[in-house]
Each structure stands twice: as structure tokens, then as C-alpha cells.
Amino acid sequence: MSFAGQAAWITGASSGIGAALARALAKQGARLVLSGRNVEALKAVAKDCGEALVLPFESTDIAAIAPAAEKAWAWSGGIDLLVNNAGISQRSLAQDTSFDVYERIIGVDLLAPIALTQAVLPRMVARGSGRIAMISSIAGKVGVPMRTAYCAAKFGIAGYADALRAEVAHLGLQVHNIYPGSVATDVSRNALTSDGSKRGVSDKAIDNGIPPGIAVAQMIDEMLAGNREIIVAEGAEKAMGEARRTPDALLDQIGAFMAAGYVQRMNEGAE
Fold first, then answer.
1. What gap in Å lies between CA 132 and CA 177, rounded to an integer?
2. How many domains would you assign to the chain?
3. How many CB atoms lie within 10 A of CB 131?
4. Rounded CA gap, 52 and 8, in Å?
5. Residues of the chain whose pLDDT is less than 50?
6. What is the structure's pLDDT at 271?
7. Residue 270 pLDDT
8. 75, 95, 136, 240: most buried, per Cβ within 10 A?
């Protein structure tokens, strides 16, 4: 199995996991829609991706999302895989952190991917097929110091994705929660500090993390296998993620509510 001939829309595609995922999917023969803010970096990635559309926009510009979704869908004749990857991390203690840092991180890491998913979702539902992948984090399963805003957003996006999956699985859609641990990207260098400024330095754990190419190869394999929770980590981070893994039986149980008439009963006040 592969993504050959399918259209994938990746946010945060200019670097790190997003860029590696774009290149890996292109090698399988996918058509790519590449989004982010850095137009020149997106163009550089596009050169490696064969058939690709560079579609830059600011992820938190909610007004820009609907026209972007229209353009992406029209260009490719539909979106088979939406990867909500754009995000920003944090390195500051809660007691020191300005509230606008919380607003910024939750806007980028939680509200923006929800907004983009909502723009694409009705089209996927009408077509009866599609995949939605949320790049969360091990910090979306286990609270990590100096990342309270980041954890809040990543826990939140995982909850949204789990609930969405329960609603749409019986309609032919797949929803994947992807939980990377330390991957060798600029995520720590670009993280926000307590006053909202960029940290500017990396962490040893990130620098020694999983190479992006290896991380995305696992993500692709597990998406194609239909896995709903995908933990991409090593060592202690992997152990933490696995300890908080949601059992497949529970995901099946929640998903079965829809097929059993849950919405109708709720609307009738029977639940």
C-alpha cells in the first residue's frame, strides 16, 4: 500500500516533520499541497515533490482558511490526506508565562488545525473518504514541565480528533493521532519563552532525537495500516506514550456509538 496518486495537504511543510513528510509522500507518488508562512522554504520543498502546489497562509488567519481550502480542493480534485502539522512549542514555567503566550500557542496548535479540519471535513464527508492526521506530541499524552500551554493545546487536539473519529469513521473517513517524541527539528529553537520571544537554542534531547526521515516513514506506514494512535518515540518517551495509549477496544466502543444511533437518541433526549 502507498499514497500513490493521492493528494495530501500538509501544514507546517517548510521544515522539520512537515518537509520530511512531504518529500516521503512525494516519493510514493502523492500530489502535495504545501502550506506554511515561509514561501521561499515551501518552494524549496516543492522542488523535491514533483506535482506540488505551494499554498502559503498564516494558520491563525481564520478568514484565510476557507479560500485556501477551496483552492487546495480544486487544484487536486479533492484532498485524500490532511496533515495538521503546523505548530509551536514552549519553554517556560507557568508562573512566569504571560497569558498572551497561552493565547498564541493554543491558537496555533489547537484552534488553527480545528479550523482547517472543519473547512475540509464537509467535502470529505460528502465524498465518503479521506484521512485526517493530527500531529500531537508525547506532551499531548503526558504533562511535561515548561510546556503548560503546549500540553494544553496538544491534549486538546487529541481529544478533538478522538471525538471526530467517532463521528466520521462510519462515513468512510479515518482520523489519526500522531504522537512524536523528540525528533531532530528546530521545534525547541523556535519555542516561545515566557514573554513570547523565541528561545533561540535547542535541547540536547531534540538534537539527538529521531531523524525526521525515519520518524515520517513510521508515520506513513502506520497511517496506511489504519492505526489510529501512532506513537513515534524512543526510550523513556516511548514508554510514557505507550503507558497512556488508548486501547483499541475502547476506541472501537466509542466509534460504535454512532452506528448504534447515538446522535438520534441525543437529539431525542434519550441519552
1. 9
2. 1
3. 20
4. 10
5. none
6. 62
7. 63
8. 136
Domain of 142: which CATH number?
3.40.50.720
Q: What is the pLDDT of residue 268?
A: 86
Catalytic residue of the set 102, 150, 160, 179: 150
Give yes or no for a contact between 198 and 191, defined as CB atoms under 8 angstroms apart. yes
Residue 2 lies in a domain: no
Give domain status of residue 1, yes or no: no
Length of the chain: 271
Known catalytic residue at 150: yes
Q: What is the DSSP letter of 157?
A: H
242 is a domain residue? yes
Q: Where do we find the cell 501544514?
A: 11
12 in a structural domain? yes
Q: What is the pLDDT of residue 1?
A: 84
Amino acid letter, 88: I
For residues 51 and 32, is the Cβ–Cβ distance under 8 A? yes
Q: Tens digits of per-residue pLDDT, 154-199?
A: 999 999 999 999 999 999 999 999 999 999 999 999 999 999 999 9
251 contacts 162 by C-beta, under 8 angstroms? yes
Q: What is the grid cell recorded at 250?
A: 475502547
Q: How many helices (H) and strands (E) does the chain have?
A: 11, 7
